[in-house]
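Colleagues,

Please find the record for the four-part complex below.
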Amino acid sequence: MIKQKNRVPQPVVSRMVQYFAHLDDLAGQGVEWVSSFDIGSSLGLTSATVRRDLVHLDFSGTTNRGYRVQGLLDSLSGFLGIDQTWRVAVVGAGNLGKALALHAEWSRRGFYIRAIFDVDRRKIGKRVGALEVLPMDKLPQTVRAEKISIGVLAVPAEEAQKVADLLIASGVQGIMNLALTHIVVPFRTHVLDGRLVGNMIELAHGIKSTRETR
Amino acid sequence: MIKQKNRVPQPVVSRMVQYFAHLDDLAGQGVEWVSSFDIGSSLGLTSATVRRDLVHLDFSGTTNRGYRVQGLLDSLSGFLGIDQTWRVAVVGAGNLGKALALHAEWSRRGFYIRAIFDVDRRKIGKRVGALEVLPMDKLPQTVRAEKISIGVLAVPAEEAQKVADLLIASGVQGIMNLALTHIVVPFRTHVLDGRLVGNMIELAHGIKSTRETR
DNA sequence: TAGATTGTTAATCGATTAACAATC
DNA sequence: TAGATTGTTAATCGATTAACAATC
């Protein structure tokens, strides 16, 4: 009997990304073995949390030695889905959208920006790196033709839901929402809130409350 | 006796930002009253969670009517610290750093970008909007002179810790880390991980696991 | 072997939710 | 008033951690 692959809790997935980044570092330094205790202290976690999280991978540690860095890294890549490539479209060719389309870090991790869209006539036709800014009415056909599975919302909050609906209708399976607004999507479509401004506000709150507690 | 102001749990703070954004919307639409049930259904939360969260504010609802939108919005602004202005420096004048320095959304919420720095000789002296890219050795004096309290890391992961240390030594109280790496800061300094690439990876994982569960 | 580290259990901790008395 | 909605309690749910037997 094959063990039912359970859904992995969100906090665990989020730490998996941290493990991946850390192991990637270690591999670059030529480290071969690492213990749950080492990983934990590098990231501010207990070793128990680390070991419990890693149980979700098809990979085992070795009693007395820890985890083999390269093996764990490969297993994390597979788990997270960055052993494959992802085709991405950015909607909104403002400062943020353009920066995302040009950000070198994406392709390093397997995310390829294949298209960028905007409603603004003055932006349409302009170049952003190797891409040309396309009008919104080209979105459905482009998403299909380019087999794009992730859409990035770099549009004003008021437009976010409408654009998300269009992306989903065109076939994307995931949406990265950079607007500070909640969007609703059908079951089976994934959304992740980038919360750039939201994070900044949380940071402001943290600083403010430290000052007051003084 | 004054009630001890307890630390508010992180998940609550994060929802407070959502409430703020939603109430800001409602206020813009001229809505005057809102119930915990309404807020909850707009954001995908239970009304109990909303009511319990709002207890942390110096603001009460009205039995039978709900919460007055404008009052709740003001109270949320005060709680989050966006009733004041924040002076910000960006480190890293690459695509992402420049986009952040130009992003209009920041000033709308009270975050003013007062300086941008880079190590790259070719970037130093160039203009980014109204700002001039400054060399790193001008950072300490500029942070002090401009009374900057938040630093944004838009630098490669390898540089992040070093730049964070410099920012903190120069007096910033909070750091927004956009690099995919864990940084360590002294007690009383706040860090928030922007996790742009990290979020994208989490999204990829979500899509991948949905496909596999099919 | 002796020592170190895993994988897992059981206990703890904290966050969410259902339910309801209070009340305008 | 009757109905609706708050604020809060108690129950539930889920995540983290301490502890330890297994073991290389």
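Chain A has nine helices and nine strands.

Comments are welcome before we finalize the supplementary table.
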